[in-house]
């Protein structure tokens, strides 16, 4: 199995543990039947949350396995845009999942925090 596929599988496993995703799936019928959203809107919301969680787990797993890295290095390794990684870093810093440990040229070096194994996403909606 390729390294990239292994990373994605590990990230997906972490994403499926997410509280926000479990809450939303658990309320699916209630939300659709009550008319709060259509089935299509619900599926779009779940897909968006799942994509966000997988990307955040990819970043966290990379930081945990290889140590502090810049957004530039993460972008090259993970194939995500600089902007997307920066958006995740802002949210994960606010949530206490990553921190800036030093600077490398014009870039910050980010590291995963020592927080317990938990979801990188605790907010209800972004």
Task: Report what the structure shows.
The chain has a two-stranded antiparallel ribbon. The chain has a single domain (3-112), classed as Arc Repressor Mutant, subunit A, CATH 1.10.10. It is 61% helix and 10% strand. It has six helices and two strands; from the N terminus they run H-H-H-H-H-H-E-E. It is mainly α.
Quick overview:
By secondary structure, this protein is mainly alpha-helical. The chain has a single domain, classed as Arc Repressor Mutant, subunit A. It is built from six helices and two strands; from the N terminus they run H-H-H-H-H-H-E-E.
Secondary-structure blueprint:
Layout: H1 3-16, H2 19-26, H3 28-33, H4 39-66, H5 71-78, H6 82-94, E1 98-104, E2 107-112
Antiparallel strand pairs: 1-2
List keywords for this structure.
126 residues, mainly alpha, Arc Repressor Mutant, subunit A, two-stranded antiparallel ribbon, 6 helices, 2 strands, 61% helix, disordered C terminus
Mean pLDDT: 85
Order of helices and strands: HHHHHHEE
Structural class: mainly alpha
The main sheet comes to: 2 strands, antiparallel
Q: Please give the count of helices.
A: 6
Assign an overall shape.
elongated
Low-confidence stretches are 116-126
**Radius of gyration in whole Å, from Cα?**
16 Å
Count the strands? 2
Under CATH at level 1, the class stands as Mainly Alpha
| Helix share bin | 55-70%
Second CATH tier, the architecture? Orthogonal Bundle
